[in-house]
Design goal:
The chain has 445 residues and is mainly α. It has one domain. Helices cover 87% and strands 0% of the residues. The chain is built from twelve helices and no strands. Helix 2 packs antiparallel against helix 11 and helix 7 runs antiparallel to helix 11. The protein is elongated and about 115 Å long. The two termini are 59 Å apart. 42% of the residues are buried.
């Protein structure tokens, strides 16, 4: 006979088992909802927020300082070396053509100018090569092209010079070939190198001109979270002030304030480096290149006795563009190199007048007078006016470049001590945070 089933007893046993199985879960829930657990969770959350905000801030500061340092050490020197490289190549070519126009043995001063320009070309070529980035293939190709073709050019010039001294007409052919090589290969490569350098300077500055708003915002959120955490802990512990949390708020607030001030000062210096340095520097550099192109056109006008007006037209075109750049410089309110620019404007006008006299002499068939007007040593002739213009533009370039580098150095120096300070204050904030929370946790033992 089957014994009767005790439904009441079974139900009671099942209920008891369920209660015993549910007790650990309920206890865990009660533990997680307890004040100590909430304080620990708050501490962990604030710690993570502190670490993330400082890591982001330190990374942004480090990256920005590295950007300024890279511009000062490689990017800007490469652009400057490329500008100087174009200048000395133009001077060398103009001196070589001037020596040919003189006929026979060229003046010693002209020969010395040519030799000096070729020597400086090698120096600036080395400086440009030293500033090349590892992956900058176009600039590397241009430097290689100049280094490869420069010996060919000087060889053609020496052959032309030798034939010219003995009165051999073939010298003109060698000079023409050398000048073509300069105009079609060497100078375009130098100009491309300079253009790339200027673009790199501009892009580098744009990357560093805005304040680190993301890092500032993140630190601001962290300070607000610490303040809210202080309010919560104060209410739970029924104490108005928690010294540890207050110190953590102060340390993080100091990080925020220092980052804000340093970021704004650095950005302001970078902005000035752009407006009073990089932009006018690019304008003056282009002006100098145009002046040198005008001088090349003027000397070739005589060397090739051009009757088509091509070289005279090239001279007029480049001088017009030069005038536009100088006029814009004076209108833009640039505070740097105002005196050299004023001198350049005056020299340009005087040179245009001297060139007009040269063209007039050629038009009436007086080649000797035209050669004297274009290459002679007189103070009112084209050579002196070009030299005055080139010198004024060179001084302006030096002043604006100094303005650019001074402001970039100031921006870098402002950020130099910020990163280690951020890490130091992070450590102080974390220690202070838990130094304020742990005593409150001990009260619940």
């Amino acid at each position: 006979m089957t014994p009767p089933i005790d439904l009441i007893g079974s139900r009671s046993q099942t209920t008891g088992d369920s209660v015993r199985q549910g007790e650990p879960t309920d206890e865990l829930r009660r533990t997680l909802q307890s004040t100590p657990a909430r304080i620990i969770a708050l501490g962990v959350l604030l710690s993570v927020l502190l670490i993330v905000s400082v890591v982001v801030s330190a990374d942004m500061v480090s990256t920005r300082k590295a950007t300024h340092d890279r511009l000062l050490s490689t990017t800007e020197p490469l652009a400057n070396a490329a500008q100087n490289l174009y200048s000395v190549l133009s001077v060398a070519d103009a001196a070589a053509v001037t020596g040919f126009i003189s006929g026979g043995i060229e003046p010693e001063s002209v020969r010395d100018r040519y030799i000096q320009a070729i020597g400086e070309t090698s120096d600036h070529l080395v400086a440009a090569a030293a500033g090349l980035a590892a992956g900058d293939r176009p600039s590397t190709r241009n430097v290689t092209e100049i280094a490869r073709m420069l010996p060919v050019y000087t060889g053609l010039i020496e052959t032309a010079r030798t034939n010219n001294r003995i009165g051999n007409p073939v010298g003109a052919a060698y000079l023409s070939e050398a000048s073509h090589l300069m105009q079609s290969s060497l100078l375009p490569a130098a100009q491309e190198l300079h253009t790339a350098g200027v673009e790199n300077v501009e892009s580098t500055q744009r990357a560093a001109v805005a304040p680190p708003w993301q890092a500032i915002a993140l630190l601001l959120v962290t300070v607000a979270a610490l303040a809210a955490g202080h309010v919560v802990v104060s209410r739970k512990s029924r104490r108005t002030f928690n010294p540890g949390l207050i110190l953590a708020i102060a340390a993080t607030g100091l990080s925020l304030g220092w980052l804000l001030v340093a970021g704004l000062v650095s950005s302001s210096a970078t902005q000035r480096a752009i407006e009073q340095g990089a932009e006018p520097l690019a304008s003056l550099t282009e002006s100098r290149i145009l002046a040198q192109q005008s001088r090349t056109a003027e000397t070739l006008l005589l060397a090739r006795r051009d009757a088509t007006g091509a070289y005279d037209g090239a001279f007029a075109e480049t001088m017009t563009r030069l005038g536009e750049l100088l006029d814009r410089y004076t209108r833009d309110g640039v505070e740097v190199a105002t005196e050299p620019v004023a001198q350049a404007v005056a020299a340009r006008e005087a040179w245009i007048n001297a060139h007009a006299r040269t063209v007039a002499a050629l038009d009436r068939g007086d080649y000797t007078a035209a050669a004297v007007l274009a290459t002679g040593p007189g103070p009112d002739e084209a050579t002196a006016q070009f030299a005055a213009l080139d010198q004024a533009l060179g001084e302006g370039i030096d002043e604006t470049r100094a303005e650019l580098r001074d402001n970039e150095f100031r921006a870098s120096r402002t950020l130099s001590g910020l990163e280690p300070m951020l890490w130091t204050l992070l450590g102080l904030s974390l220690v202070s945070l838990w130094g304020g929370l742990i005593p409150r946790l001990r009260e619940y033992r």
